[in-house]
Amino acid sequence: MGKTLVRELGRGTLSGRIVEVEAYPIGDAAGHAFRGHTPGNHSIFREHGRAYVYFIYGSCYMMNVTSERPGIGGAVLLRAVEPLEGTNLMQRRRGTARVRDLTRGPGRLASAMRIDRRLDGVDLCAPGPLWLGTAVRPVGRIGRSVRIGVTREMNRRLRLYERGNPFVSGPKRLRV
Q1: Is the dihedral of CA 62, 44, 50, 167 positive or negative?
Q2: What is the pLDDT of residues 4-62, one digit of tens each?
Q3: What is the Cα gyration radius of the chain?
Q4: Is there a contact between 161 and 142 (Cβ–Cβ < 8 Å)?
Q5: Which CATH architecture has domain 4-174?
Q6: Rounded CA separation 95/120 (Å)
Q7: What whole-number distance in Å separates Cα of residue 49 and Cα of residue 81?
C-alpha cells in the first residue's frame, strides 16, 4: 500500500499510487497457487517481488505481486491505484475522460496501465517495463474487509484499502 506502480512505455510513463490490495496467502483456497503449480500460474511460485499476470473472466487481465520464496505460491492482487503520471495516456487507453474510473478495480488498472500476459514474471524490484517505486506520500488510514469476487474462503478479511480514497473499488459498504 502506498508504493508507486510504474509502467514504462516508449511514448511515456504511467504511474499510480497503490491504494487497494487483496492478499492470497499460502494455503488460501481462493488463491491461484492452492491447487499447485501449472503452466498458467508458474509466476506465482517465483520469488517475491515478481508480477503474476493472468487473464480472467474471458475479458481482462489482473496483476498480483508475488510474496513468497521460490516454489511457494502466494501473492497480493493489486486492486486499485490512484493515477499519478500519464493520465492522458490512460484515458485514451480506457476510452473515458473520468479520471476516477481509470484504475479503480483490477481489470481497469491493468487495462489503463497496459499490463498483460507479456509482463507475467517481470521483476518489479528492478528497472524495466513495470516496476514498484517508493511512496510519494504516507498512506492514510487503512480499512480492511472481505475480498471481492471470490467464492472460496470469502469471509476472510484480506482486502486492504486506503480509507476515503476515491480510487478504491468495490461496493460502498466495503469502502467505509
Answers
A1: positive
A2: 999 999 889 999 999 999 999 888 877 887 888 888 888 899 899 999 999 987 789 99
A3: 15
A4: yes
A5: Roll (3.10)
A6: 25
A7: 17
CB 26, CB 4: distance < 8 Å: no
Cell of 115: 499490463
Domain extents in the chain: 4-174
d(CA 107, CA 56): 9
Q: Are 38 and 54 in contact (CB under 8 A)?
A: no
Q: What are phi and psi of 165, to 5 degrees?
A: -80, 125
CB 97 within 8 A of CB 110: no
| Residue with grid cell 498512506, as numbered in its chain | 139
Report the SS3 class of residue 88: helix
pTM of the model: 0.92
